[in-house]
Amino acid sequence: MSRAAGYGLAGAGTGPLETLGAAKINLHLHVTGRRDDGYHLLDSLVVFADIGDRVVVDPWPLPAGAETVFRLTGRFAADLACTMPADNLAMRAAAALAGRVNRPLPRMIALDKRLPVASGIGGGSADAAAVLRLLSGAWGVPRPVVMDVAGQLGADVAMCVAACPARIAGVGEVVTPLGHPTARLLGGMGLVLANPLMPLSTPAVFKARAASGAVASAPASLPDAGDLPQLLAALADATNDLAPPARVLLPVIADVETALAALPGACFTRMSGSGATCFALFASPDAAKAASVRLAAARPSWWVAAGRVLAVAPEIRETPSASS
Ligand SMILES: C[C@@](CO)(OP(=O)(O)O)[C@H](O)COP(=O)(O)OP(=O)(O)OC[C@H]1O[C@@H](n2ccc(N)nc2=O)[C@H](O)[C@@H]1O
Ligand SMILES: Nc1ncnc2c1ncn2[C@@H]1O[C@H](COP(=O)(O)OP(=O)(O)O)[C@@H](O)[C@H]1O
Predict the structure, then answer these.
(1) CA dist 294 → 78, 194, 255, 261, 275 (Å)
(2) Does the global pTM surpass 0.80?
(3) Where would I find the GHMP kinase N-terminal domain in this sequence (predicted)?
């Protein structure tokens, strides 16, 4: 019996596994109601970018008495320095899945934090989801169990496990991947993300919306099929209901939206999630890259990133070491 099979690890892999904790972008976000526990019901079309955190996991079982090694690197690692390793969403995801399927914790988790923290693109949820995708693949955990654990970690985590263009309902846990033709259409697009590097707390934005007296929205009316211009036109008629309260809390968001909309080739601009990151869609990744260079030069204090919309979840691959 192979070492992998002996530990119940799926596949022949012997080394650490890695994937991308992909940035989540809400193309629209309607707040459609509120649950008794205070969580808001949402309707959203989400896509994921090839821009994200690098997440590496060594799924081999931890020897008795040892602790999982947690490595945190990257441009935004310092923003999580005061979060205890055990409280990091990547570590919490491993503990939650291991507990649920009664397995020892993995030996090592490495997180290269490239996405700004508390920025409306689900970075922490993406990290948790990446760990769930890596470990559940190695351990052979069925998808419904993974999705259930994801829902307990945060409202955004289940959609980040899917990591493909999807319509979202419930408080975020009802994830319906788009049919292939629509996912493929969106998947070819370029995008630019921009953040003024000021964090915005998600609960604060929901609270500010409630205080403004805003009423519940109906779900957006989006075509099931059709071409990209049709879909973008329908999305333009939809809104991000969290943008008005977010702009009140952080007025610079309006500048970010305006700067993105003015970029040559930008065909759709909006704030994502609870902000402050805003995005612009482009016909191609090359057009997005050229526009991002321009924006980064004009706004050197902002975080600006260019990439493409993913049609399917980022691949999982073996990696020789966490630092490679
Ligand atoms: C707003 C969204 C839209 O995709 O994105 P982000 O801005 O976080 O990226 C999400 O719903 C955020 O999901 P997530 O960040 O996982 O939220 P959680 O950690 O579960 O909840 C943080 C807090 O946000 C509020 N919350 C979150 C989700 C939701 N459907 N209703 C809420 O009211 C609650 O006050 C909750 O205590
Ligand atoms: N791996 C992680 N990455 C980002 N934030 C994390 C992580 N682990 C815990 N957190 C906490 O989760 C909160 C939400 O962060 P994040 O997911 O980046 O927000 P958003 O969904 O708005 O982009 C932060 O305040 C942070 O302290």
Answers:
(1) 27, 12, 15, 13, 22
(2) yes
(3) 88-161
Reduce the DSSP state of residue 200 to 3 states and report it: coil
Helix (H, G, I), strand (E, B) or coil at 320: coil
Number of CB atoms found within 10 A of residue 194's CB:
26
Ligand 1 atom 33 nearest Cα? 39
| Digit-coded pLDDT (tens) for 29-88 | 999 999 999 999 999 999 999 999 999 999 988 888 899 999 999 999 999 988 999 999
- pLDDT surpasses 80 at 186: yes
Partners of 46 in beta bridges: 26, 166
pLDDT category, 191, cuts 50, 70, 90? very high
123 lines ligand 1 (CB under 6 A): no
Distance between CA atoms of 30 and 77, rounded to whole angstroms? 31
Percent of the chain with pLDDT over 90: 86
d(CA 56, CA 316): 10
**What value of ipTM does the predicted structure carry?**
0.97
Sketch the domain layout of the chain as residue ranges: 3-178, 180-308
Homologous superfamily, domain 180-308: GHMP kinase, C-terminal domain (3.30.70.890)
From the candidate CATH numbers 2.60.40.10, 3.30.230.10, 3.40.50.450, 1.10.10.10, the one assigned to the domain spanning 3-178: 3.30.230.10
Distance from Cα 269 to the centre of ligand 2, integer Å: 24
Residue 226 has pLDDT above 80, yes or no: no
**What pLDDT does 182 receive?**
86
Candidate from 29, 44, 117, 157 with most ligand 2 atoms within 8 A of CB, to mutate: 117
Annotated binding site: 116-126
